[in-house]
Amino acid sequence: MKTRTLAATAALTVSIAGCAAIATDATDTHADYRAQAIALMKSSFHDKDQATMDRLDQDGVQRLCDQQPDNAASAQERAALEKAELATVKFPADGKFFGNFAEGEKIAQTGVGLQWSDKAGSVAGGNCYACHQLTKAEVSYGNLGPSLYNYGKLRGDSDAIVRYTWTRLYNAKAYDACSNMPRFGHKGILTEQQLKDVMALLLDPKSPVNQ
Ligand code: HEC
């Protein structure tokens, strides 16, 4: 037992030392690898109908998160970028946050609309189920994001929760620059009406999410 522990400790020390060596190396060459990776992507993708090459262009948050923001300077930069993302959020012009939850469920179920194979200008979906559980009835869902089952039942519908949820849907990077959730409002993926329908799906007490 003791020998095994010692062996394991030795192996760990070696692997930590190994990591340190790699990390030093990686810092030096990281920018090169990044440039090479971007060049490779640009050479292997091409425009196809509505999916144009500008989709590979990164904005500030994407660039930051792609560059492993683990130092103090980037923590500051990150906070500034989150503030700028928060400033993009537009609340509903008529002050009404809720649409129809049945429509919201349809939006959550589909991810088509913006692929090269979709007709330009078609209505896009939110593909929420790709990353979240939402209802008990749907058994096929991804788990990159947390379960949203009973979201409204657990959170209630205070003004703070309503505004938080809208902001999260509109631009998730307002709360976390490196969020993996698409920026549905900011990037024009969902319309204001669709966002309202998804809000109803999450927060309406009658929605299947809250049963
Ligand atoms: C590509 C994956 C992905 C998709 C698609 C996605 N989300 Fe998310 N979502 C996440 C992740 C990851 C989080 C966890 C927090 C973070 O990283 O921003 C999250 C967080 C949330 C939260 C906050 C949960 C909380 O406890 O506060 C809500 C609400 C939410 N998502 C709703 C939706 C809805 C509605 C849709 C569809 C319109 C959707 N998401 C689509 C990945 C996704």
Can you give keywords for this protein?
Cytochrome Bc1 Complex, Chain D, domain 2; 211 residues; mainly alpha; 7 helices; disordered N terminus; 2 domains; binds heme C; globular
- The assigned structural class equals mainly alpha
The shape is globular
H/E topology pattern: HHHHHHH
Per DSSP, the total helix count is 7
The overall average pLDDT, rounded, is 87
The radius of gyration is: 22 Å
Describe the structure.
It is a single chain. The chain has 211 residues and is an all-alpha fold. 49% of the residues lie in helices and 0% in strands. It folds into 2 domains: 1-44; 49-211, Orthogonal Bundle (Cytochrome Bc1 Complex, Chain D, domain 2), CATH 1.10.760.10. Helix 4 (101-109) crosses helix 7. The longest helix is centred in the N-terminal third of the chain and has 43 residues, at 2-44. The chain is globular and about 55 Å long. Mean pLDDT is 87; it is low at 1-26. Heme C is lined by residues 108, 126-128, 130-132, 144-146, 148, 165, 168-169, 172, 176, 179-182, 184, 198, 202.
Note the topology.
Blueprint: H1 2-44, H2 60-66, H3 72-86, H4 101-109, H5 151-155, H6 159-170, H7 192-203
Helix pairs in contact: 4-7, 6-7
The structure holds heme C (HEC).
Short summary:
The chain is mainly alpha-helical.
